[in-house]
């Protein structure tokens, strides 16, 4: 490295002879490293790194050995700005490195120091109300007055020792002011509102604990979340907790010198927060007492003495817990897609093992599930995979006899399609991994999307996009009404026309040099069909809500809503990502017909599987935990000007296409089973639980890791993604609850 730096410096010196202006070579590192090789924590070795400035403008005498000084990383921005003659960044909290300018004349030194100190003082005024009492600001005002006296003497051409002594005093005053101001601002930037963060974390954890305590009650009894809130509100314990929390709030707000979000709220709003914390705490205590009195877990064991956890159940539980724990490591957050790819692939292998065990059982072994073996040919099976993706018949009651053996299935072709379905899903997932490289370690690697999006392969991209749209239509159209089917076909044709209008794909008769447009008319043409399909599905769903026993109408309505979302996703996704949508629908069809229905998985297992595949397809699409991977172009499809609300909705939907479509498919699948009873209620609870556990855990982790080296570059963007995902989960759960017809049926 020494020889490389020498070559670079020598080359710069040779160019300086031509340009007659000095160059600057900055050698630095982004972080240090501990003795064991770690570089993510906040130890001295990990946050310390060398900084070397090499330039012919610096005067160094032979034998002049200087001991290295400790400077802040933020000092580099101010130093480079002064050296390049550009304004110092407005929000920079660094101070000028004085050794860089100490060779300049006194007038220039004082001018540079004044610019830096003035910028820091203005930043201090914007962030601290009582800035006039700050010691650094007082030093700055004193330095300005002394600087003015020095300028007067300098203009009088007084070169006596008085001028030199006064200049040295001004330098020391400026350097002291810089150090104090920079320290004050750095402390302000690194200050966290611990009180507000703690209150928010407590509320999140209370809600999560209520979810966990209600899990046995919901999954084993009524499938309803019954939180006892009325009795705690009127209890003496509630008022005691409320008074204690209010006293703590008053004490913190009156003694805190720095700004606090909760303290800035009106007293009525802050009191509402204290009431919420008190009610949730009392509800947790009530739930615990109810569990002890009722003995829910003991009754469950007594009622189901032989029930146990299958391999798939253990995988779903351990995989979910393992993913939550992995969020505490920055590398796992950066490469989270690898975690979901691994979990989905492992799930396919576990399902393959389960299908084989269910078929190849011995005479003395009771199968865990029973396969429905239908007498139909191979061609019928393959056709139903593509066409009959929504014809879910109500399953027969589980037989107590033995499952279908291999010899019994020889007369039919379905046994091998069931056994091969997990491997087909595994192959699809492997192909999708090659489409988009994401994360930090592999984002630079070549992938199929880069090859398709290059200008030399526009024909191949057009063919792949057209094929994907045809597959999407074949997989979706069977469950739609004739009107929605025609609207879906025209909408998908409009999607291709829109991409052709903006010049991304080509029609067979179209030349590559065609004048492109914004495609606003074509996109709005598709929006009309999207709204039409969604309106038709919503109408059928509302009709089913009135007629409680009309399950067929509700199933068709939910599928048409799912179809409308698929059409909207096809419009917003870039053409090279249309295979992701097609494979998603294909996997949903295969899993429904050949895994979930034959193996008779319960609602909780199916919900977790849908959640896993939704997360995997979030990354198959090319997303990551980096804000830079958000495709904001989806927010401008069909818009000629920026409209905040539509652009926000389209961008969010285009980013979370995978989780939303898998959730809508889950809703349709469970609603299509007329005899499932409270399955949709259980699914809603499980979906809310599995979505809230990572968020609650991650909030605690981020709070504890707030001084981590990568808190702003890795953990904070992930927190934004988790927050938006939680909002989407809440919206989906609201739709689940509105769709659930259980209480209407009981009424």
UniProtKB/TrEMBL annotation:
Q: What's an example GO cellular component term for this entry?
A: endoplasmic reticulum membrane
Spell out where the chain crosses the membrane: 194-213, 225-248, 268-293, 459-476, 488-509, 515-535, 642-663, 684-707, 719-738
Q: Which residues form the GPI ethanolamine phosphate transferase 2 C-terminal domain?
A: 419-731
A GO MF annotation of the entry reads:
CP2 mannose-ethanolamine phosphotransferase activity
Question: Among its keywords, does the record have Ribonucleoprotein?
Answer: no
Q: Which UniProt keywords apply?
A: Membrane, Transferase, Transmembrane, Transmembrane helix
Q: Which domain of life is it from?
A: Eukaryota
Q: Which SUPFAM superfamilies does the UniProt record give?
A: Alkaline phosphatase-like
Q: Which GO terms describe its biological process?
A: GPI anchor biosynthetic process
Q: What is this protein called?
A: GPI ethanolamine phosphate transferase 2 isoform X6
Q: Which organism is it from?
A: Cricetulus griseus (Chinese hamster)
Q: Tell me the organism's taxonomic lineage.
A: Eukaryota, Metazoa, Chordata, Craniata, Vertebrata
């Amino acid at each position: 490295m020494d020889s490389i730096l020498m070559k670079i410096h020598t080359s710069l010196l040779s160019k300086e002879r031509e340009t007659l202006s000095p160059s600057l070579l900055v050698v630095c590192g982004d972080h240090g490293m501990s003795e064991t090789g770690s570089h993510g924590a906040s130890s001295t070795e990990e946050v310390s790194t060398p900084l070397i400035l090499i330039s012919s403008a610096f005067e160094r005498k032979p034998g002049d050995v200087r001991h290295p000084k400790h400077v802040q990383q933020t000092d580099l921005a101010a130093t480079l700005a002064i050296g390049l003659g550009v304004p110092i960044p407005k929000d920079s909290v660094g101070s000028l490195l004085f050794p860089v300018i100490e060779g300049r004349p006194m007038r220039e030194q004082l001018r540079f120091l004044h610019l830096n100190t003035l910028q820091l003082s203005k930043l201090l005024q914007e962030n601290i109300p009582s800035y006039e009492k700050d010691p650094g600001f007082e030093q700055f005002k004193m330095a300005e007055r002394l600087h003015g006296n020095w300028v007067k003497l300098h203009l009088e051409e007084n070169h006596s020792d008085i001028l030199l002594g006064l200049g040295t005093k001004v330098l020391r005053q400026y350097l002291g002011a810089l150090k104090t101001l920079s320290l004050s601002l750095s402390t302000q930037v690194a200050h966290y509102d611990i009180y507000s963060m703690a209150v928010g974390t407590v509320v999140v954890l209370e809600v999560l604990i209520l979810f966990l305590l209600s899990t046995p009650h919901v999954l084993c009894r009524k499938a309803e979340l019954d939180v006892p809130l009325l009795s705690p509100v009127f209890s003496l314990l509630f008022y005691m907790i409320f008074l204690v929390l209010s006293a703590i709030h008053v004490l913190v707000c009156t003694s805190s010198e720095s700004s606090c979000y909760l303290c800035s709220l009106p007293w009525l709003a802050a009191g509402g927060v204290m009431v919420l914390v008190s009610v949730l705490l009392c509800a947790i205590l009530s739930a615990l007492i109810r569990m002890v009195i009722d003995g829910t877990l003991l009754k469950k064991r007594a009622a189901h003495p032989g029930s146990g956890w299958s391999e798939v159940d253990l995988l779903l539980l351990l995989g979910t817990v393992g993913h939550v724990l992995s969020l505490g490591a920055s590398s796992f957050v950066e490469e989270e897609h690898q975690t979901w790819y691994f979990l989905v692939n492992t799930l396919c292998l576990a399902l393959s093992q389960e299908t084989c065990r269910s078929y190849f059982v011995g005479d003395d072994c009771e199968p865990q599930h029973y396969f429905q073996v239908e007498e139909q040919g191979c061609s019928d099976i393959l056709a139903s995979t593509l066409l009959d993706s929504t014809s879910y018949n109500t399953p027969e009651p589980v037989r107590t006899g033995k499952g279908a053996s291999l010899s019994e299935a020889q007369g039919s072709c379905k046994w091998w399609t069931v056994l091969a379905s997990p491997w087909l899903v595994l192959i699809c997932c492997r192909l999708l991994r090659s489409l988009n490289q994401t994360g930090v370690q592999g984002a630079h690697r070549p992938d199929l999307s880069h090859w398709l999006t290059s200008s030399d392969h526009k024909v191949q991209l057009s063919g792949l996009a057209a094929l994907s749209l045809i597959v999407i239509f074949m997989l979706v159209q069977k469950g739609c009404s004739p009107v929605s089917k025609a609207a879906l076909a025209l909408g998908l044709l409009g999607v291709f026309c829109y991409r052709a209008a903006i010049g991304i794909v080509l029609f067979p008769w179209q030349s590559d040099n065609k004048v492109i447009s914004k495609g606003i008319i074509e996109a709005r043409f598709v929006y009309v069909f999207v709204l039409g399909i969604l309106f038709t599905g919503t109408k059928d769903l509302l009709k089913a809500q009135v007629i409680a026993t009309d399950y067929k109408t509700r199933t068709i309505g939910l599928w048409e809503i799912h179809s409308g979302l698929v059409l909207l996703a096809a419009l917003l996704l870039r053409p090279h990502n249309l295979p992701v949508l097609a494979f998603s629908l294909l996997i949903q069809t295969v899993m429904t017909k050949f895994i979930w229905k034959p193996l008779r998985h319960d609602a909780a297992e199916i919900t977790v599987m849908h959640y896993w595949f939704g997360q995997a397809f979030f990354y198959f699409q090319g997303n990551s935990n980096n804000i830079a991977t958000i495709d904001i172009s989806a927010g401008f499809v069909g818009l000629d000007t920026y409209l905040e609300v539509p652009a926000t909705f389209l961008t969010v939907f285009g980013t979370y296409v995978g989780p939303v479509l898998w959730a809508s498919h889950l809703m349709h699948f469970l609603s299509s089973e007329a005899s499932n009873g409270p399955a949709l209620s259980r699914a809603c609870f499980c979906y809310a639980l599995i979505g809230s556990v990572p968020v609650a855990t991650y909030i605690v982790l981020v709070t504890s890791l707030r001084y981590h080296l990568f808190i702003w570059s890795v953990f904070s963007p992930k927190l934004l993604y988790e927050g938006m995902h939680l909002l989407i989960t809440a919206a989906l759960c609201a739709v689940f609850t509105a769709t659930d017809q259980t209480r209407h049926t009981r009424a």
